Amino acid sequence: MTHHPKERNGGLNRRDFLLRSAMAASAVTGAGGLLAACSSSTTPEQEAATTVVGSTGEVEAELLGPGGLPLARPDKRVELPLWEDPIESGLEPETGGTFTVFNYPDYFYKKLLNEFGKEYGVKVQYTPFDNISSGIQRLASGAVEPDVMEMTPDNLDLAVAGQLIKPINLDYVPNLAKNVWPELVSPFYDVGSHYTVPYTCYATGIAWRNDHVSEDIAAMAQPWDIFWEAEAYAGKTALLSEERETIGMALLRKGHPDINTEDPALIDQAVADLKELYEICNVKIGDLQYQTIPEGRAYLNQAWSGDMIAAYIYYLPKGTPASVLSFWKAEKGQVPVQNDCFSICKTTKKPVLAHHFLNFMLDNGVSYENFVDFNGYQPPINEIDPPALIEEGIVPEHLANCVLTNDDFGPDSLQYMTLTQAGHALWQNGYSDFIAGGS
Amino acid sequence: MYRRWLWPGFALPGIVWLIVLFLVPFYTVLAVALGTVDPILFQAVPIWNPLEWNVGWLNEVIQRLGPGGNLTDVALRTLQYVAIALGLSLLIGYPVAYYIARLAGRTKALLLILVIAPLWINYLMRMLAWVNLLATDGYVNRFLTFTHVLSEPRDWLGGRPSTVILALVYGYLPFLILPLFASLDRIDQSHLEASRDLGASRFSTFLHVTLPLSKPGILGGAVLIALPMFGDYYTPNIVSEAPTTSMIGNQIDFYFHGGPQPTIGAAITVVLSAFLTLIMGYYLWTIHRATREARAS
Amino acid sequence: MSSVAEAQAVPRHSSWSRFRGWLGNPWGRPRFLAAFTWLYVVWSIVPVLIAVQFSFNATRSRTHWEGFSTRWYWGDPVDSVWHDPTLRSALAQSLKLAVADVVIATPIGVLLAIGLARWHGRGSGASNFLMLFPLVTPEIVMGVSLLLLFTEVFSFIGTGTTAQILGHVTFSISFVVVIVRARLFSIGRQYEEAAADLGASPTSALTRVLLPLLMPAIVASAAVVFAISIDDFVISQWLSKGGETDTVPVKIYSATRAAPLPSTNAIATIMMVMTLASITLGFLVWRFFTRGERRAGQAAVKDIRALEI
Predict the structure, then answer these.
(1) Which of C84, C159, C243 sits opposite A5 (nearest CB)?
(2) With contacts defined as CB-CB under 8 Å, which chain B residues touch C119?
(3) Where is pLDDT greater, at C174 or B51?
C-alpha cells in the first residue's frame, strides 16, 4: 500500500478535524442568548434559567438553536427549511477558472482533486482552515469565497441559519443514494439531505497496548472503568482533549445515556468522577494516541476508531507487531458515533460544478482511494465494509471493530450534537475545571 | 524651532506602532472580557464604551479564581511553579554570573558566549532535546540506571511537577544570567577592595557589598523571567500534558480555541495582566526609589 | 583585593602546606565556582548537541544512536526536510516572517531609539515605559490581544501571514531600541556636538556622523531581530491560520508532543544554525565597525554591560 508523505508529519493538522468536530458540538443560543446582549451583568448560565432542563435530564421545553431551528438528536429528526430554492436540474457544469475546496488541512487527497480538476477543466484550490468554527467565521465575514466546504452536523444549524450554505439538488448527486449507507442518506440532522452529504465517520472507544495492559478490557462489565483502575499505568494513560468526549465518557460509565444533557448536576458529577483520575493514574489529555500508542509512549487511551487504523498503516515502528494494538468500542446505543459532511457554500460561482464535486466525492473508487491512500478516515460507503478492508490488508483482523458499519448509526445511536449556548457553557466550564487539575 | 519636534518626530513611528499594535490590543482584550458573545458565530463582541461594560464574565472568572473556585488550584500552582523555578534559577544563575563577571579571567569572553548561546537556540528545540533525553529509554534513564542511582528507569514524562519545574528552569535560566552578569560586571572593584581593606572577610564582603550592589540586576532579571513564565502553557504541554501540572496559561489557551466563551479566556487574561502589572509596578517603584537615593547620595 | 592578598600571603613551599592552604581556603582560587559554572554550561548546551546528533541518526529512533546518515535532511524521499512539503513550507514561512520583521522593525526601532535618547520633553518617560512593556509581557497575553485585535478590530486583516508579521514587528521594536540605545550611550553626544560646532545642521550631523557610528548597533539589532523572529513560537502560533502559515517552531511543538521523527531534530538544527549564523554575523560586523574604539577582547563585554533594561 502506498503512503502519502503528509501522513507522517501532518498528523496534528488532520487530527484537528476530529478535535474540532467533536468539540464543536456547541452552538448557539436560543432567545436567551440574545437577551444577554441587553443586560449589563450576565453570563449564559444566568440566562439559562429561562431555558430548561429538569433534574431528570428531560427537556421540558423545546430546545432551539439559531434562527429558532430545533436541535436535532438521533431520535429527533429535523428537516431544515430551505432558505432559497436549489438550482435547477439538467444544467451543464461550469468550467474554467478556480474551484475552491475549504477544509481541514490535509484532509482530501490532492491527487484526487487534481483528477477532478482535469475532468472538468478547472483548477482546484485547497484552502485549509484551522478549525470548523474559525472556518465558518471566515466564510461569514467574506474573508474566503469557497465553492464547497467541510461541515459538521453540530455546526449545521448555524450555517443554515446564517444562510452560509446552499440547498442541494440531489439530481446531481446520484451517488448519495447509491453508495452511501442508508442511515446517512437522509440523516436525522438533515432529513432529506437538503444541505449536506456525509464524508467520513468514526466512533469513540478505548485503544491500548495489550502487551503492557494485562486486563481484558473488552470483557469487563463496564470497560470505561479501566481508567479508574489504571494505577499500574500511571503516566501512560490519557483521555481525549475534548470537552464533550471526556465528560461524555464519564456520563456513559455511570449509565447515563444522554450525552447531550444540559443537567448541571450530571455534568458536575461527571467532572468529579474525572477528577478522581488524577490520583489514580495521573491521567494526561491529548489527541495524539495514533502515534503515542504504537510508539509505546502511552499504554491506555480514550481513542477514535480511525486512530488504530492510522496507527497500523502509518505509525507502527519497525519491529513492533500489529498484534499489540487493541481497540474496544461499546455496543450501539452505548457508543458515541460521529460523522462529518460536505456542503456547498453560498459564495460559490460554480453551483453546478459544486454538485458534481459532491457526487465525485461519493464515488466508490474516489472515497476508497482517499481513505486508504491518504487520510485514513473511513467513509460511510456501502462497498467499503470490514470484510473488504480486512481482505485488502488495510485493517488487521483483530482491529475489525475499528471499522464502522451502517448498523452503528440509527435513531438509537449516540451522537454528540448541538447544545444551547448555556448548555455548551456548562460543558466547557466543567472541562476547564477538569483540566485545571485541582482537587 | 523645529528642533523641538525633531526628536519626538523620530520617535513617532515607533510610538504610533506600539500604540496601535500593543496598547489597542490590550484595550481590545479588556473590551472583549467585558463584552458579550455573538450568539450565532461565537465570536466575541467587544464593548468599547466603559459605561456599557458587562462585568458578568469578569465576575465569574474572579469568583472561580478566588477561594473555593475551581480555578484557584491552577492559579496557586502556577504561582508555586514560578516561585520555585525562579528560586532555583537564581540559585544556579547567580554563582555562574558571579564567576563569569568577576573571577573568570581569561575565559571570560568564551564563557559569556557559551552562556548566552542558548538564548539564540529555539526554546522548543531545547525542550525537544529534553523530551528525547527524558524518554523511558533515553540517555538520562540509561545513565542513571547504569550508575545505579536509579534501580529502574523513571517515568520523567508521566506528568510530574518536578519535570515541569526543571524544564522551566532550563528554559528561562539563560534569560536571567545576562542581566545578572551585566549588573555584577558593573560593580566597581574599588568598593570590594575598600571593604577588604577595612577588615571584612571575603564572605562578609560578598554579603554586605556585592549582593546589595547587584540587587537591581537580581530584581531586573527576576522580573524578566518571572513575568513571561506566568503565561507559559507550552512547557507543561510538552513535558507533561497532565491536568495536575497545568498552568493558568493552559486555561486561557483552552477558552480561545473554539466554544462559546472566548470572553472567559479574555477575562482570565485581564486578571493575569493586572496581577503582573502590580508586580511590574512594584519593580519600577523600587528602581525609581533606588535611583533617587543614588542621585541624592 | 590583590594587595590584601599579597599582604596576607603565606609562603608556600611544601606540597603539604600548599594542600593545607588550599583546604583552609578552597575559595582562594575559585575552583568550586569555576567547576559549577562549567557544569552549568555543559548542562545547558549538551542536550542541544545531543539533539543535533540524533538528527543525523540512521534510524528513526531519537534515543538509540544507530549510525550516521543525512536521510532526515535530504536523503529520505518521504520524511526528510527537503522532501516533506509541510516542513519545507514551514521553513519558508519562518524565513519570510524573519526577513519582513528585520526590514520593518529595524528602521522603526532605530528611529525610536534615537528619538527616545534625545527627547527629554513631556511624554518621553511614558514613551520609554511603553517601549519597555513588550519585553516583559507574557507572550500568551500578547498572543491573545493580537488575535482579538485581528479578528475583532482589524478583521479585514484576520489571522495569517500579515498578522504574524505585524505581531513579530511589535515585539521586535523593543529589542532594537535597547541595543541601539546602549550604543548611543557609549558614543555620547560629543561627535554630534563637534559636528554642530563645525557648522553642520542637525540632520546632516545625524546622517553623516551619528548613523555611521550607529552602524554596528543597527546591524547587530537586525541580526538579533532575525534570530528572535525565527525562534518565535507563541505569537506565530496564535496568529497562524493553519497549513502554510505555520512556522518551524509551531511544527516542532506539534511534533514534540506526538512522536517526533529525527526530521524534527533536523529542521530544528537547521533553524539553530541559521540563528547562530545571524548572531555571529551581527557580532562580527559590530566588532569590525568598532575595531578602532576598543582594546581587544573587552568590547563585547563592555557593550553588553551597557545594555540597560
Answers:
(1) C84
(2) 7-8, 10-11
(3) C174
A428 grid coordinates: 466547557
Considering the domain A98-201+337-408 in this protein, what is its CATH number?
3.40.190.10
Residue appearing with cell numbers 427549511: A81
Range from A226-235, B69-78, B167-176, B252-261 carrying the lowest mean pLDDT: B252-261
Topology, domain A202-332: D-Maltodextrin-Binding Protein; domain 2 (3.40.190)
Q: Which of residues 27-66 of B touch A (CB under 8 A)?
A: 36-37, 39-43, 45, 52-57, 59-60
Spatial distance between the Cα atoms of C4 and B201, rounded to a whole number of angstroms? 11
Helix or strand run (H / E) with residue A328: strand A325-328
Chain B residues with beta carbon closer than 8 angstroms to that of A164: none
Chain B residues inside the 8 Å CB shell of C45: 114, 117-118
Residue ranges of chain A assigned to CATH 3.40.190.10: 98-201+337-408, 202-332
Angle, vertex CA A419, rays to CA A418 and CA A420, nearest 5: 130
Judged by CB atoms closer than 8 Å, whether chains meet at C279 and B120 is answered as: yes
pLDDT at C152: 82
The answer to whether residue C182 scores a pLDDT higher than 90 is: no
- Which residues of B fall within a CB distance of 8 Å from A286? 241
ipTM: 0.87
DSSP A41: S
* d(C-alpha B274, C-alpha B280), whole Å: 10
A64 pLDDT above the threshold of 70 = yes
Distance CA C99, CA C249 (A): 16
DSSP for A193-252 reads: -SS-EEEEEEEEEEEEETTT--S-GGGSSSGGGGGGG-GGGTTSEEE-S-HHHHHHHHHH
* Domains in chain B: ranges and CATH: 31-59+72-296 (1.10.3720.10)
Contact C78 A5 (CB under 8 A): yes
Orientation angle between helical segments B108-116 and C31-54, nearest 10 degrees: 40
Q: How far apart are CA C55 and CA A351, in angstroms?
A: 49
**Helix or strand run (H / E) with residue C136:** helix C124-136
DSSP-derived pairing of the beta strands A325-328 and A336-345: unpaired
Q: Which residues contact B294 (CB under 8 A, 6 or more apart)?
A: none
